[in-house]
# Entry
Amino acid sequence: MGFVKTLSAALAVAVLVGSAPAEARFGKRSRPSTSDAKDSDDRDDGRKEHRATPVGRASDAPVRSSVRASGAGVGWFDVLFISGPASYHRRARAEVPRGQRAPRPAPLVHLNLQGNSFGDVGGALDLYMALDGQRWGMDARVSGLSLEPDDGSSDRDRLTLLDAHLTLSPWSTERGRFRMEAGIASAHAPDAIFVGPSLAASLEACLGPSPFDVEARIQVVPFPHRQVDMQAGLALHLGALNLRGGWRTLFLSDGGHLDGVVHADTFTGPYLGLGLSF
# Structure
């Protein structure tokens, strides 16, 4: 487990290190200002000069930072919790007689709906499903974000994140499950669509004899865009129904692929979910 945390930390640091100061929202082209147009004419190479003040530095003129956070900041990336789609809960609480092996859990299907609040920035609605076998499985999810515009327009900014993974569970018992995931992810932004490889790790474990599970998850997309999606929380099981709640942090950066200027966002806030496992 320590190796997985170390690997996750390395991936998160690699995503964050070297990011240029952001100017506008992820996947959205910058609107050139009058001063930018004049500077562009004065430059022989014709390239745009990025005049936005880097995040965390003061400026004589007010500059709106596009690296947003509604609560916790980038320091959240130092806390690497791992979580899976729907909680994997034991089907029986009976003690296994000494000398006998615990029964292998049958394949489970998970269906989940989750709402996320990012404060005054906006929110997200997630739908995902998964199939867990003893070792192998699959996972697919879609996340739709509705955000306040950052350019003064009246229309809301909308982002759609999609991913599909194959999963391998090195640890799978009646007490919980640890998954390693690999697949493909896409981000549909106002002015661009990105598609790249996706890696994730997830963990769910029972809390003693209670009906509660602890759950956590981290997902990383290293290129062409950069995405780090983390959440951690608790799940309450009521038969096949489960209620889930916790905290989510989402970082997105287009790496400057649109117009040479990095557009990035950080969203963070609580989530609530409802799911079925059968």
